[in-house]
Amino acid sequence: MMKKYDYLPNGYQETIRKGLGALNSYTRVSYDIGARAEQLDRLRQELDTADAIVIGAGAGLSTSAGLTYRGERFERYFFDFKSRFGIRDMYSGGFYPFLDAETRWAWWARHIYFNRYIDPPKPVYGELLELVKDKNYFVITTNVDHQFQRAGFDKSRLFYTQGDYGLFQSVNRKLQKTYDNEEWVYKAMEAQGFVRDESGVFTVPEDKDIAMRIPTELIPKCPDDDSDVVMNLRSDDSFVEDEGWHRASAAYYDFLKKHEKDHVLYLELGVGGNTPVIIKYPFWQMTLDNGRATYACLNFGEADCPEEIAAQSVCIADDIGKIFRDISG
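RESULT FIELD:
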């Protein structure tokens, strides 16, 4: 039986296929392919002359924008969870086995709000938009913090492969839908005692009197059948790929196919080793397949490329925001 979205091309599967194909295609990784000034000049030129720019963004881009999961931000907003449960960062806290739903959803309300519904401390996403806003671009990202749209990127040119902090899904697998959670998040933040500052952003009150639980009646439920909900984040085969996801996947597929022989800049930003088969390895393979393409890897302390495409590559190991400012300056 044909599934609901089978008629659409699947850019996610296509990029995974290319990524898996790249695993056996390369011999060595190159780290030093030129002086920083030369790499910056080449990147400027590629941004100016490319027929199309495919942006692949990982967690390092949001880290450069100041959306860090540990350190000062964690200490400010989760000091009580750290003290009581020994949680050391936002990432690990998402897997903590809280004993009741009221505490678990208090945690998630904060986690969602401070990573999805506020602007990042640094304008890195906006700086990227300034570089590409008049270009023919498309974005594929494993980030789930929605910061591309907050910065003003065209929604029709974005593909969030791994989900969105702003969406819930039902535990009922028959309901292949997602549900916006913004209204619930704001209610749950207020219920914990967070207060709004003059710009309307929730902050910890001066006396730090906030709760680590939400009222039982605020535990989120599916609006369709009152079943329990979970975050719409890819962790196993229960992840819901809804209509919006499939249309974005198809748009990505179409963009890649349309420009596969053009002068393409594959611009990889802050992609680490957790999910290289979604962005990094496919970008390597598509660059190898197209002699007119350029691969650019911008990543703090971790910029590299295979020897086979070194002549087609730009690698700059530095803070991404600093690189953007240097290019624009």
